[in-house]
Amino acid sequence: MATIYIDASSGSDAAGRGTLDQPYQTLGYAIFSTSTDSVDSTKYLFRASAEAEYDAPTQSATKKAKKDAQGLEKKRQKAAQEEKQLQEKREKRERMLEESKKVIITEDESLPKATKAKIVKLEPLRGQRVRVSGWIHRLRIQQELTFIVLRDGTGYLQAVLTGQLTKTYDAKTLELEAAVELTGTLQVVPEGKTAPGGHELTVDFWRTLGSAPGAEDAFSNRLNEQSDPSIMADLRHLVLRGETASGVLRLRAALLSAFRTTYEAHNVLEVTPPCLVQTSVEGGATLFQLPYYGQEAYLTQSSQLYLETCLPSLGDVFCVQESFRAENSHTRRHLSEYTHLEAELAFITFNDLMSHIEAVICETVDKLLANPIAASIIQQLNPGFKAPARPFKRMAYAEAINWLNEHGIKHEAEDAGGNVIKDEQGNAKMVEHAIGDDIAEAAERQMTDIIGTPIFLYGFPAELKAFYMKKMPREKGATGPIFTESCDLLMPNVGEIVGGSMRIADMEELFEGYKREGIDPKPYYWYTDQRKYGTCEHGGYGLGVERFLAWLANRYTVRECTLYPRWPGRATP
Ligand code: 4AD
């Protein structure tokens, strides 16, 4: 007589074999795993724990275990049934796919020749045969009817496949994001129906150019709107295919183009300064260093100093250049690499500078709103957006300090070493603002959001600002901090989007600036030379393109406003 061992404490139904060394865990499973006709001739020995002796189970335990075994058997049968059905389905699909390989479609040579076109250029080709290539953006498959929304980067096109066209191997294996070429007649959609562009392609011939996987690897399984932010970041290359991300990037392109047109109208010339530099602009703390042929070099923080050197050569200049900031800021408005739009203007006053910044921004926004494609993206991403009213509010630094105090907006107190002072519970001590304080990001944003319009905040204390900033004229005998001809443009929801200033034109004053900031003037010889050979009053500014775009397109973070964002710890993809 065969003997099966069951140990309730250390046995295992899944891994056990019913032997003394490898007992099962439950009597039910032991009975289930014995063939039906040998159950009565099998001896079952059970123990509740490793310390107990093996013994025959009680009658009632055996009765209950037989019931459990029946339940397990039912489960097994159901699973086998399901597996069978699945297998049949797989085989059916295999057969169907084999059959589909026999369906060969060819282009009807007697039809008029198709014109190859991008989706954006289709309207004048209505009623004609066209050939369009793109990616499957949306897909709905019905019996002998396949609806496609095709995307080619210039727009979206609705297309319909019918009859034999839906029976080929390519049709049966078509998935989202496959690249295809569709040929057919472009027809205006009937009254009451809508489609992108107002027309639809009735396909008469098509082919897959690059297939995309289905099942677990399908595009919609890798990414959807609920995906975790870190997955979205890793899969940014796929996120870019979506309507929102591509809309933001399309708007970004229109924005840069509109800025360029605006600068052209103001006779400001574009230059392309280097990224690899050996001088800092905004202080050593945020420099990315790299070895450079045995020397030390940095990734540029700002092209300002180079733009200044262009003034006597080219007149007013601007650049669109990547700037790099090695700051450990994980906020929604900081990137480690960002696109910096900077301009520098000669023979101006501080007032001229602020008026120019305002004009460039407003004229650029007007151009975008007059451009149907850009305007429709703005409406889609930021419904109800209106160009800001001019003139922008101007608020002196000292006025802002008063405003913050009147509105009860405090900041964290710091000790002499710059450490936040905390109470016994570990909460930061909050104090009123005073002249000389750096207005922190949080306070600045609160103020901007309450005021709700663009604000030029100007005249910051020299101590808080870079070495190159021109000081405001002061009355003889005046005491207190020295203010500078500097301005930040603050926008609701985003905060600072522009930082600018008049620059020190006087050589002596510049040397004082180097000294105050502890900068060795030697590597700056070329910058100093500007003051030696025909110095002039001049000023300029830098605009963070991603921040501007976040404001314009109402994006939560600047990370959405650049192709492949970089922030602390992230340089992939
Ligand atoms: O205020 P910032 O540091 O000014 C300068 O670099 C000047 N040298 C520019 C000039 O006068 N030519 O930076 C200017 C702008 C900010 O207002 C902000 O919009 C953007 O650059 N910016 C950043 N954007 C994204 N991520 C960061 N880490 C940024 N740091 C500055």
UniProtKB/TrEMBL annotation:
The keyword Cell membrane does not apply. It catalyses: tRNA(Asn) + L-asparagine + ATP = L-asparaginyl-tRNA(Asn) + AMP + diphosphate + H(+). One of its GO terms (cellular component) is cytoplasm. It is found in: Cytoplasm. Residues 249-565 form the Aminoacyl-transfer RNA synthetases class-II family profile domain. Residues 1-20, 52-73 are annotated as: Disordered. GO terms for molecular function: asparagine-tRNA ligase activity; ATP binding; nucleic acid binding. The keyword ATP-binding applies. PANTHER family: ASPARAGINE--TRNA LIGASE, CYTOPLASMIC, ASPARTYL/LYSYL-TRNA SYNTHETASE. This is asparagine--tRNA ligase. It comes from Coniophora puteana (strain RWD-64-598). The lineage of its organism: Eukaryota, Fungi, Dikarya, Basidiomycota, Agaricomycotina.
